[in-house]
Amino acid sequence: MDTVNPLLVSSASGLKMDVNGGEMRKNPTLICAPLMADSIDKMVTLMANAKATTADLVEIRLDSLKNFNPFEDLNVLIKQSPLPTLFTYRPVWEGGQYDGDEKKRLDVLRLAMELGADYIDVELKVAHEFIKSIGGKKPEKIKVIVSSHNYQSTPSVVELGNLVVKIQSTGADIVKIATTAIDITDVARIFQITVHSQVPIIGLVMGERGLISRILCTKFGGYLTFGTLEGGVVSAPGQPTINDLLNLYNFRQLGPDTKVYGIIGKPVGHSKSPMLYNEAFKSAGFNGVFVHLLVDDLEMFLRTYSSTDFAGFSCTIPHKETAVKCCDEVDPVAKSIGAVNCIIRRQTDGKFFGCNTDYIGAISAIEDGLQAGYNMSSAAGSPLAGKLFVVIGAGGAGKALAYGAKQKGARVVIANRTYERARELADVIGGDALSLDDLARFHPEDGMILANTTSIGMQPNIDQTPMPKDALKYYSLVFDAVYTPKITRLLREAKETGATIVSGLEMFIGQAYEQFERFTGLPAPKEQFRRTMSKY
């Protein structure tokens, strides 16, 4: 059985086009706006909003309505909807809000079908009985989605395959499976099921670790994805907004041959990398997408997503050091630093190459800050030569900055919460070590440079700072690798004491130049990167 997506037609070029003449798209995956409101009037308003976002259809969650008169209200909703309608009346036992009589609930779905709904969603537990009850009365145009939700985990590929067969056996037109991600590698099993499915299928994985299932369903043949009208108002955990799907991820331009890139971290949701790279990919006409990847175990992630279509990754806290061990080949500089922030999968043999672009971005930004702040000439060698350079943090970014500063002739001091780690790094690069507690009292000279490479002060903990304000007066320049927020408490207080400040945004943009070129083989659009980040 093959259900052609009724909302799209193919153009002569093979690209999909909206039947009402909308933008060209490279995949037939629909965007459905889930609507939850307590009144019919609000539901109608939301429908108009969904149309304005260019969603393809709306899911009307009947279980969110307070007062509901089925015949009258369904008529209004179907007649007034500017988009095709999917009716869902989710019971409490399947994660919804309806806890009334089961027969009445199914009668409402039958009525929606008779009154002209385009889709109805029926839970697997009652689907056999429901589909048998409609017999030959099912209108030609309506599609019955039979759904299964697992709020605990994502089963094995074999179990998922059996579940698809079970759902198909009910007579479903479209199979829907929603599972929960314990780990980002769980999503690979849903991709495997979706891409090999012989029937129209919706396969989504809930939670932040499942986000890629909602974006890359375009690549793996998913029938639809859900996108919300506004952030935070979701009908299931982890749903992105329609605005993000279309404008951040270029959803309608993704297809089976799109290369996947991403930022690997934990936490990772704050990262602006997807905004930076996706805008640049789009401008360059490069067929790639850049996504947030919340990864717990780097080695397992790289082993699971083994296709060369997963082509390259930026690496952030806490995975930069582990990345060195996970790569088949590591650039000598990254090896010296002991941290990798960029992983490229070679297309010829699938092997991983790791390098470090952090130190270039950060050190250049600090040098530029010193030259601008003190009218130094760049011809006279590095302004860091001979300076006392204090690095807070001994992780991947700390190693990169310590290495970069040492290369430029600075005298390096490492300060870290655990003194042993600071000492370890200081010994490797040839510098001194302090515990973070002792740093506030450390001022052998004035005019020092301070670089915070920890996540202290990052959203949501914006009131935190690694250094008391009165200790900042001994520094001529303060750099913070944190760039969310752009001006951290550390930078704000440093500026108040008269120091030159350099935001982590400068490091972020600087390190992205080389990564973009390694990802795409194209020159980095430096001006565009600056424009993109200035909007933020």
TrEMBL record:
What region holds the Shikimate dehydrogenase substrate binding N-terminal domain? Answer: 263-343
Q: Which GO terms describe its molecular function?
A: 3-dehydroquinate dehydratase activity; shikimate 3-dehydrogenase (NADP+) activity
Q: Which GO terms describe its biological process?
A: chorismate biosynthetic process; shikimate metabolic process
Q: What positions does the domain SDH C-terminal occupy?
A: 504-532
Organism superkingdom: Eukaryota
Q: Where is the Quinate/shikimate 5-dehydrogenase/glutamyl-tRNA reductase domain?
A: 384-454
Q: Which CDD domains match?
A: DHQase_I, NAD_bind_Shikimate_DH
Which Pfam family is one of those matched by this entry? Shikimate_dh_N
Protein name, as recorded: Bifunctional 3-dehydroquinate dehydratase/shikimate dehydrogenase, chloroplastic
Organism lineage reads as:
Eukaryota, Viridiplantae, Streptophyta, Embryophyta, Tracheophyta
